[in-house]
């Protein structure tokens, strides 16, 4: 009976984690559409509520603490709950980076900037960031070790792509700044916003790593 009650609580925690992950994913999806449509005013509608995300995260943390106290799980179940506890923090940080990206990009962008060059890299960077987060969150419901490891590797690949894409756009924007110093602040702000996408991919790898730890043990922190 105790096991069944624990499994119900565990599934509830998983579903709540997926819900707050979806908040961030939906915001990134809306931002991607705005960039594809070159409708930068629509970015305002893509912003998510960090307050709502934090409240939901705190509620999950409380549920995890309660589960630890009531059921005193061992081995894999304990690793899983500890991982979920850390994942809520990673999602809040990803949410903060998402909000920062949208706000800074929206307020910094103007028709004076080279839209084509910026979007040539910003769109694939955002796509890769989104895929890394979606893939890491999908691991939560995985029950096969091989599938978890495969998805973890896919997240790592996407994170590496975001690093490469950011390096390329940084290089190109620095060239644009050299040609037009009057717009240097705006270009630097755009770079700052895109850097936050790279950080979201870092958070995605952390989430995937925590879920891999929950499955097979090992080091809880990435080296």
UniProtKB/TrEMBL annotation:
Q: Which GO terms describe its biological process?
A: intracellular phosphate ion homeostasis; negative regulation of phosphate metabolic process
Database matches in Pfam families: PhoU
Which residues are in the PhoU domain? 17-95, 145-209
The UniProt entry's coiled-coil ranges are none
Kindly give the InterPro entries that the UniProt entry links to this protein. Answer: PhoU (IPR028366), PhoU-like_sf (IPR038078), PhoU_dom (IPR026022)
Name under which the protein is recorded: Phosphate uptake regulator, PhoU
> Which family does the entry's similarity section mention?
Belongs to the PhoU family.
Q: Per its UniProt entry, which superkingdom is the organism in?
A: Bacteria
């Amino acid at each position: 009976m105790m096991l069944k009650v624990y499994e119900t609580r565990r599934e509830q925690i998983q579903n709540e984690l997926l819900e707050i992950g979806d908040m961030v994913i939906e915001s990134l999806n809306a931002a991607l559409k705005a960039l594809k449509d070159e409708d930068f005013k629509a970015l305002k509608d893509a912003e998510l509520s960090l307050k709502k995300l934090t409240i939901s995260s705190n509620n999950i943390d409380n549920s995890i603490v309660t589960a630890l106290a009531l059921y005193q799980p061992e081995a894999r179940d304990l690793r899983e709950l500890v991982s979920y506890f850390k994942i809520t923090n990673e999602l809040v940080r990803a949410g903060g980076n998402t909000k920062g990206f949208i706000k800074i990009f929206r307020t910094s962008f103007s028709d004076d900037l080279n839209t084509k060059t910026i979007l040539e890299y910003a769109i694939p960077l955002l796509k890769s960031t989104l895929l890394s987060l979606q893939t890491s969150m999908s691991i939560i419901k995985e029950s096969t070790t091989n599938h978890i490891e495969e998805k973890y590797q896919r997240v790592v690949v996407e994170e590496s792509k975001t690093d490469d894409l950011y390096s390329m756009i940084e290089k190109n924007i620095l060239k644009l700044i050299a040609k037009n110093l009057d717009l240097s602040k705006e270009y630097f702000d755009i770079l700052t916003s895109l850097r936050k996408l790279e950080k979201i991919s870092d958070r995605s790898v952390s989430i995937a790593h925590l879920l891999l730890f929950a499955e097979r043990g090992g080091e809880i922190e990435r080296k």
